[in-house]
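Appendix B. One record, verbatim.
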Amino acid sequence: MRALLVDHATPTGLRLGETAPPVPAPHQALVRVAAVSLNFGEVKHLLAEAPDGTVPGWDAAGVVERAAADGSGPPAGTPVATFAAGGAWAELRAVDTDVIGVAPAGADPGALSTLPVAGLSALRALRRTGPLLGARVLVTGATGGVGRYAVQLARLGGAHVLASTGDPERHGDGLRALGAHEVVASPEAVADGSLDGVLDLVGGPQLVAAFGALRGQGTLVAVGHATEEPVTLPIAALFGDETRHGRSLTTFYLPGCPDLAPDLAWLAERVTDGTLDPQITWRGGWRRADEAVTALLERRLHGKAVLDLD
């Protein structure tokens, strides 16, 4: 089968080539892939660390070619979105049935492919912040794939949404169109003790500032670490009083979340009916993968990059 393979001899670490098709385990379905989406984390770290010949990729959408032998999961012919730690960037992938989201008939595979990492991370992390109805929630790094879904989902859940971006003048209108009530340049612009929840995608000093803006019982979920800077909390940040008692900072790891399939199916319905906008800002055939990877690494892409397997 054709696949994008890791090849450290190329400028981007990828080449289009041939490899053996996967052999599904009994609890896995074989999916014929129609589209994949790229994530900054995988092109920045996964490609550099994976051995030559590996088929990388977390997100893919397509149609079930062969149902799981153990009877779990959807039948052959079902449109699906899929998540796994690798194997997405190929014509066929074997996927555990508990991370396959059934999609409505006629759904755009490209839109579906944006959901597994970005959509699921936003949904599950927001749940960790607590009830959204009436809450004040900050999303840092809001112009990325996870951030854009988080803004939409937080607004959909009834929160007052604050979106943080390094360039509010450039991205403010777009973030407000997605549902942000306020757009700020950084968490430092948010009054201390005013937030019920934070979904942090940046890390470093921004995480520290966002944690300081939590009110008592508020929760910050550390999802991303785009700056790759250390997090240094001053001792005063950990002091509690009547306004800061019970604040929490929690880590997040999507593969550690159980029962992802129903949430992935729910997201697929919301994208297909137009409730959620996948925010695809780059799309092309997989022969143009180098363009997308380079744009991601150079931080020229805000939103999602999609490759169609033509």
